[in-house]
UniProtKB/TrEMBL annotation:
It comes from the Eukaryota. Residues 93-223 form the GST C-terminal domain. InterPro entries: Glutathione-S-Trfase_C-like (IPR010987), Glutathione-S-Trfase_C_sf (IPR036282), Glutathione_S-Trfase (IPR040079), Glutathione_S-Trfase_N (IPR004045), GST_C (IPR004046), Thioredoxin-like_sf (IPR036249). This is Glutathione S-transferase. Residues 6-86 form the GST N-terminal domain. The lineage of its organism: Eukaryota, Fungi, Dikarya, Ascomycota, Pezizomycotina. PANTHER family: GLUTATHIONE S-TRANSFERASE GSTA, GLUTATHIONE S-TRANSFERASE-RELATED. It comes from Paraconiothyrium brasiliense. Gene3D superfamilies: 1.20.1050.10, Glutaredoxin (3.40.30.10). Pfam families: GST_C, GST_N_2. Belongs to the GST superfamily.
Length: 223
């Protein structure tokens, strides 16, 4: 196989909820890709070589075209480039798609707040104010997801937007899944029962269950 052929590569981390969104989209669409698992906070990571922001996921092309980074940006590329492959992951209706992307933003905000909290707690003297701020965001997002799922259930809808699976469902499963995986909100399933039931079923679906988060061993100090 020549250098310009072959599958896409996704620089990912085994626990990363951001990368998980892209992994699910590519798996569901049947796009061939290989994973390059890294720990983006450690010295030997390749991430700065491809993304000056030093974050993953990053999508690499076999022909050496510029890499694509930021999970949402990668989702957009996959949706448009592979528009002929089901599931389409957006509805094609501008207003519904605005909602789908908004839900993705909410899920990413939840993930970001978790990461900021995770490292704050590792500091010698964590800031109580900063922790409270991130905690509010996590709780706010979880409440918003519970309300959203409740509303959709009332309308007898399985998915968060429209009648088919979209990036909104993928993002919500990954965001909530990370809180569950990290044990960041003990008892969350009791506090948000409708969300827990929806998430539990979605998380076991084909394309989702293969990408559940797996912890890595962070050896180097980050903060
Ligand atoms: N907005 C970015 C966030 C990605 C992100 O925070 N990734 C984490 C791994 S889960 C990372 O690479 N962190 C390294 C760093 O912040 O330096 C996206 O959606 O892709």
């Amino acid at each position: 196989m020549s250098k310009t052929e072959g599958p896409l590569t996704l620089i990912s981390a085994t626990p990363s909820p951001f990368a998980r969104m892209n992994r699910i989209a590519m798996t569901l669409k049947g796009i061939p890709f290989q994973l390059q698992n890294e720990i983006p906070w450690e010295k030997d990571t390749q991430t700065p070589k491809y993304n000056p922001l030093e974050k993953l996921p990053i999508l690499l092309f076999p022909d050496g075209r510029p890499p694509v980074y930021d999970s949402a940006h990668i989702q957009e590329y996959l949706i448009q480039k592979y528009a002929d492959r089901e599931p389409r992951l957006l509805t094609g209706d501008m207003d519904l798609d605005l909602q789908a992307r908004q839900i993705q933003v909410l899920a990413e905000g939840l993930m970001d707040a978790f990461v900021l909290l995770f490292f704050e707690i590792k500091r010698e003297k964590p800031s109580a104010e900063w922790r409270a701020r991130q905690d509010r965001k996590i709780d706010g997002a979880m409440r918003a997801f519970e309300d959203l799922v409740k509303e959709r259930k009332k309308a007898d809808k399985q998915y968060l937007v429209g009648d088919d699976l979209t990036i909104a469902d993928i993002a919500a499963v990954c965001g909530v899944g990370h809180i569950d995986f990290a044990g960041a909100r003990e008892g969350w399933k009791g506090s948000y029962p409708t969300l827990a039931e929806w998430w539990g079923a979605m998380n076991e679906r084909e394309g989702f269950k293969e990408s559940k988060p797996v912890m890595f061993d962070l050896k180097e100090s980050v903060v």
